[in-house]
Hints:
Blueprint: H1 4-9, E1 15-17, H2 26-34, E2 39-42, H3 48-61, E3 66-71, H4 77-86, E4 91-95, H5 99-108, E5 112-117, H6 120-129, E6 133-137, E7 143-144, H7 152-162, E8 167-170, H8 176-184, E9 189-192, H9 194-197, H10 206-214, E10 220-223, E11 230-233, H11 236-245, H12 251-258, H13 262-268, H14 292-309
Parallel strand pairs: 1-9, 2-3, 3-4, 4-5, 5-6, 6-8, 8-9
Antiparallel strand pairs: 7-11, 10-11
Protein name: Enoyl-[acyl-carrier protein] reductase II
Pfam families: NMO
GO molecular function: nitronate monooxygenase activity
Amino acid sequence: MENKITTLFNIKYPLIQAGMVWNSGWRLASAVSNVGGLGLIGAGSMYPEVLREHIQKCKKVTNKPFGVNVPMLYPNIEEIMKIIVDEGVKIVFTSAGNPKTWTPFLKENGITVVHVVSSVKFALKSQEAGVDAVVAEGFEAGGHNGREETTTFTLIPMVKEAVTIPVIAAGGIATGRGMLAAMVLGAEGVQIGSRFVASNESSAHINFKEEVVKTKDGDTHLTLKELAPVRLIKNKFYSELQDLYQQKPTVEQLKEKLGRARAKKGMFEGDLENGELEIGQIAGLIHEIKPAAEIVQEIIEEYNSIKKSFC
Length: 311
C-alpha cells in the first residue's frame, strides 16, 4: 500500500490513529505503530512531564515510527514542544491553532509536521506555513471540530483540489469501506479516532468504552459552538446544557456550566452522567471493544477486499 503517506511517515499502511485527549497514551500509539499504522500520543490531556513519560515508554516498546498530537490552544505549549524535540520525536500533528506559530520551529528540528484543518481556507494556510501534509477533518468527527460544519466527504475533494501536499481524511471513518471511499475522493491516508477509543489499549475508562459500543446513530450532537464546537454523546450533562440554551445564555454562562476537567470526568474517570463524552457519529458502527492490532488488520483487510472487487 505504498503511497505518499506511507513514504512520508515510513509506515506500512496509510492509516493514522488520532491523538485523542484522554484516550491516546503510549499503549495505544505503540500498538498501532507496531502493526503497521502510525500511532499518535495525545498531548492535549497531558502535563509536560506526563507527555515525556509517555514518549519514553512508547520508545521502549516500539521501534516503529510514532508521533505526538499537539492541540495548540492548550497551556504549556512551549514546554511541550521542547520535550518533543528533546525526546527525538520525528512526527508531530498540530491542531486548534495557527500552523505558522510552530511549524518553522518543528521543521528546523527535523520534524515532519501535519496540521488538522476543517476548511479549504485553513488547508491553504497550512500549506503556506510549510506543513508536510494536512488532515481534512469533517464535522462528523468526535471531540472538537471546526465551525464550518462541512462533512468529511465534501471536504476531502475540495481540499485535494486546492493543495499540492498530501491529504489525510478524518471524521466518520472506522472501516475499510470508509477508508476506501476516502481514498477514492482524493485522500492518500486516513486518520481514525473513534474506532480506537473502543480498543483494549485505549486509556479511556471502561465505562466510556462500553458507552461508545452502545451508541447508535443520532446519539451524538455538535454543541458549545460559542466556545469550541465539540461532538458529544447525549447524556445528563448534554441535556442540562440544552436546557441552558433555552435561556439564551451568555458565553460566560456556558463557560461556567462547562467548568473544568469535564472531558476528563467523562472519558478518563468514567462519569457517564456529568462528563463530556466526546465521540464521532461513526460510533453507531462500533460494536465491540478489541485489540488495536485487530482493528487495524480488519480495516486493511476490508479495504483490500473491497478494492479488489472493483478491479
